[in-house]
Amino acid sequence: MMASFLRQTYGQRIHNHNNPAAKLLLETMERKKTNLAVSVDVTKSKDFLAIIDAVGPFVCLIKTHVDIIEDFDQLLIKQLQDFSVKHDFVIFEDRKFADIGNTVALQYSSGVHKIASWSHITNAHPVPGPSIISGLSSIGLPLGRGLLLLTEMSTKGTLAVGSYTEEAVRMARAHRDFVIGFIAQRSMQGIGIQADTVDGDDFLVLTPGVGLDAKGDSMGQQYRTPRQVILESGCDVIIVGRGIYGKDPSFVDGIRVQAKRYMEAGWEAYQERVSS
Ligand code: S5P
């Protein structure tokens, strides 16, 4: 049976969550009236910071891949955190952990990037089984962090379908304190439980593979519109990368225009959803 989370506002849904990172994201979305997340996939600190400062006013969340930054240092993290305060957004390092519990705990806490110390949210592939959640939560839970499981992917030919997706949602249901939601292409409500059972778990769904002008790229990425993602598929956050900063990360005026455009498209689709 379909519960009614899809028709609740982001503000109302804050009360369905205990995890501080989930609450922070919903509060930010409600306060700034945006369900846009920007994925800042560039290799130079200068471009990384310029894009974040340009899109900051329009986003609820900034998604990072810090391992692609060539001139990474701890100062960059301080600058990212300062922007997160200045512009009021949540930070999500898209690390896609995928190893045994002991290894992911080390990768999350240590090394050059020390992700757990600054990223409110991170994500993991469910492929190792529940031990990946225990490993990451041993580090992240005491810090008030949240985890997203990748239950589906946006790419052509993805193996994350069918019973893999269902089992991953079941894993999440068993770890509600730390798993706040999914990277997926549609609402995961009712998945992994019997059809006649009421689903009381309000998971957040953050969705990449969003573009208004292109249908995909030459490497298997597939794009859908904010309307398809938020209204038709019941996802909560649109994640947009190249659709916003294109091929020229230094053209900040153009980036601002695109960010506003995606923000408005995402919010309109959400308003139509909650008022339907
Ligand atoms: O299924 C997925 C999961 C993720 S997290 N498909 C994705 O594209 N992503 C990430 O979203 C990907 O790593 C990239 O950072 C972003 C999409 O970027 P874009 O430029 O194609 O919008």
TrEMBL record:
Active-site annotation: 94, 96, 99
Molecular function terms from GO: orotate phosphoribosyltransferase activity; orotidine-5'-phosphate decarboxylase activity
Pathway per the UniProt entry: Pyrimidine metabolism; UMP biosynthesis via de novo pathway; UMP from orotate: step 2/2
Domain of life: Eukaryota
Any single Pfam family the record assigns to this protein: OMPdecase
Binding site for substrate: 41, 63, 154, 221, 241-242
Keyword Lyase in record: yes
InterPro entries: Aldolase_TIM, OMPdecase, OMPdecase_AS, OMPdeCOase_dom, RibuloseP-bd_barrel
Record's keyword annotation contains Lyase: yes
BP GO terms, sorted: 'de novo' pyrimidine nucleobase biosynthetic process; 'de novo' UMP biosynthetic process
Domain Orotidine 5'-phosphate decarboxylase: 35-255
Protein keywords: Decarboxylase, Lyase, Pyrimidine biosynthesis
Record field: catalytic activity: orotidine 5'-phosphate + H(+) = UMP + CO2
Entry EC number(s): 4.1.1.23
Protein family according to the UniProt entry: Belongs to the OMP decarboxylase family.
Full protein name: Orotidine 5'-phosphate decarboxylase
Classification of source organism: Eukaryota, Fungi, Dikarya, Basidiomycota, Agaricomycotina
